[in-house]
Amino acid sequence: MDYGPSLLERDAEVGRMRTLFAAAARGQGGVVLIEGPAGIGKSALAGAARRLGRTAGCRVLGARGSRLEQRSGYGVLRQLVEPVLLGADTAQRVRLLRGPAHRALALLDSHLDGPAPGDPGAFHVLYRLLVNVAKAGPVALVVDDVHWADDPSLRVFLHMLPGIGELPLAMVLAGRPAAAPGPCSELAADPAVTVLRPAPLTPAATARLVRAVNGEAADTRLCAACHRLTGGNPLFVRELAAAAAAAGGTAAEGDEEALRALGGPALSQWMGAVLAHLTPDAVRVAQICAVLGEEADPQLVAELAGGPETLTRGQDELVAAGVLRGGGRPEFVHALTRHAVYSSIAVVERSRLHRRAAELLAAGQPAPLVATHLLETLPSGDSWVVDTLVAAANHASSRGVPRSALAFLERALQEPPTPQATAELVRMAGRIAYWFDWPAAIGYLRRAAALAPDAAGRAEITELLGRAVILNGRNADAIALLENALTELGDGHAELEHRLRTQIIAAAVAELDLRHTGAQHLAVLSAAPRLSDEVRCKLDAFTAFRTAVIDLDRDAAVSAALRVLRLRSSGMAYQDASSSLPYLVLIDADHDDALRHLDHDWSAAREAGSSYLAAPIGYLRVHALLSRGHLAEAEAGIRQAVRLIGRVPVPLAPVYGGEILAEAHLAQGRLAAAAEALAGASAEVPPYKALRCRLDLLAARVDLAHGRAEQAVRQAEQVGRRLLADGWLNPASHPWRMVAALGKHVLGTRDAALALAAEDLDLARRWGAPRTLGRALRVAATVTGGRAEPELLEEAVRVLRTGPARLELATALHAFGRRTWQRHPQAGQAALTEALRLAEECGAAGLARRARSALSEAGTRPPEPHGTGLTPGEWRVARLAARGRTNRQIAQELNVTPKTVETHLGSVYRKLGVRNRTAMARALAATDLDRPD
């Protein structure tokens, strides 16, 4: 089919969009991202998308990203939904704003008071608004120039991706490839997004386009030259062909030198030639429109240009020249045209125009829009500029747009402000940067501390600086910074002193300095007569962790950890290096509430749309799932956690992502994949001792699984020496003695292996958690051998049956069955059969193969692969339903639609052969799929 010259050789892209809209009309949404360089035809495809959407019966909502609007929160979302809200009657508006979407107006209207500063639920609010819009019928969202879209709008699009397949909503985004990591690059990398990259035109298509512009008689040499000079870029081809037709002579005949002289491959050069032939009024109007961009309101343009008559004359001339579109509102024919005009303006004149635009807009427009123009002005020491930029920064921060807030503050500091104001603005910049760029925050906060007027002011700033340094993995540096601030602070600042000490303890934990530095500050805080709720919460977290790893008092550690989580659930939340400690204690203690708390906090963080909150919780949640043997459920969590960790711009993000993947692959028996993931995680680890220990011990476990016993023993014992130097005894999370004992057993050093296994078993009995004790008993049985081996394995199985670690139980059952089947065939075969069933349910393919092989060796035909046939998604829905959750609660927790929950439950009923939830719960219990976590 011929789509005209603007869509030459775009049949594949048009066909994919037609399929997308047809699917949306059937209730199956999707996303297409059209990505390519400037001029490749993205806008033409976006225009085609609007037509195709209407043809498919979709309600088409369109928007365009704007460089000026980038600093304004939800600018693109506002363009999409404002026509819907404004065109709705009262009843329709009530339906649109139902549920969480009732807060959408406050978010989208810059004149209303929106959510409180940092409110993390904004993304979910706007997501629910779009869901409500789609309930009235299929919707097509078409956004052009998405590379200039504001970050909050893009974050809402990212938030939509997990559930978009269940909505009658299609989205077409068109923009340039992302130049740096951010929401655009995340969209392009997401598996739910289909990326279309239009190719440059072939010589034949270039010739068709040249002849569409210059007439069918256009010289063949001109067509070939246009293709060579432009590389087949449709916009450049069109403009170069038009310039050649206007010039005539050798250029129209295809002479390349003449064509380069006219404009060449750069559109900005062509634009300069066009403007050179226009009147001063037209050039002035073009420059003003380029400066104002999307805000090029005719009245504002007229005021800047010198009156309505000047605007009318200039606009008519620019429309005739093909620079502006026809119509009432001044609008460039293409965004690149606007940028070509903008780049041709002298720097001083550009600054003057932006300053004048800001002054005119200040009378009635929001501060961020005014300040966006001030970003483009030259510094002049003007206090009004500083005040306006600071007001815009406060506005952007309160609307959840910290990157824009920081950009406004950076420009305010260039103006510059007064020395006293400079100190406050640098401090403000550091606090804002802390929420999205810890390395940048460190630079600002160091400068702010140097500018602070007194010791108390420096200590306040150093507390946040210490947090940022810790979160970057530089714990020893943080301890030195914080202890210097504490020494300088002196008496009379108890609350600040306590907060500094909590940060020192956090760094000491990560630096394996808990016994000395950490213990000193713990003792001071424990003896303090009064502590704030925040400090008390952190103190309990540290106490829980220390009691677990050094004292091995499980009951006391769990009690302190649960106190912390109760305080957090009542609103006492914080984000620093101590946040994960209570979860770690409960995971290592095999406590029933560990996964429940993590599931709840994981759902809340995802609904909030916060990568900073969700990434560490997702990381811990996967570790909890792996420790319990829920490998199938962990797989989905792994993908989400790694994706979220990758969004957090800190040096340690790839380390955490690689560690979690290696741990999961090792649990599944995928040794090559585990080694590869671990190698990526270990490539660039900063001097962070606790993290280095975890990675080295994981490497030792991989080496042991590969049969490299000597290397495994060496690494494990090195980890042990580092941990023992700080008094870490608990084998739950750092089972180095186990690895070393098994390695020495393989190497034939029996006495050393027995000593390590016995010590490991003694410590595991003191800790008392079933997973740790069962594992220690199994290892002791392996290295002891003889008549004691089956007794130790039988005890391991008995202990593990009291806890949630199903994979560890399967491993112990396999060892017990192999050891006993010859003397006690019935008991041994039963153990191997149960081990096979559990291994298959856990998704531990390697262990399942070994159990099946052992059954065959014992003369028993292995049973057919066990399972309910439920997919991971069906299993998650079924388990939550069996626990009493309603369909709506399940949908909110899993971030899917209620319709998806109904579909999954129907499939579960069919596969299990049941008719209701009660029967389903019994069936799940019978298959051991719904044991308490």
TrEMBL record:
InterPro entries to which the protein is assigned, alphabetical: AAA_16, P-loop_NTPase, Sig_transdc_resp-reg_C-effctor, TPR-like_helical_dom_sf, Tscrpt_reg_LuxR_C, WH-like_DNA-bd_sf
GO CC terms, sorted: cytoplasm
Region of interest (Disordered), residue spans: 853-872
GO biological process: regulation of DNA-templated transcription
Entry-linked SMART domains: HTH_LUXR (SM00421)
Keywords: ATP-binding, Nucleotide-binding
PROSITE patterns tied to this protein: HTH_LUXR_1 (PS00622), HTH_LUXR_2 (PS50043)
One MF term in the entry's GO annotations: DNA binding
Gene3D superfamilies for the chain: Tetratricopeptide repeat domain (1.25.40.10), Winged helix-like DNA-binding domain superfamily/Winged helix DNA-binding domain (1.10.10.10)
Ranges of residues in domain HTH luxR-type: 863-928
Protein name: HTH luxR-type domain-containing protein
Taxonomic classification: Bacteria, Bacillati, Actinomycetota, Actinomycetes, Streptosporangiales
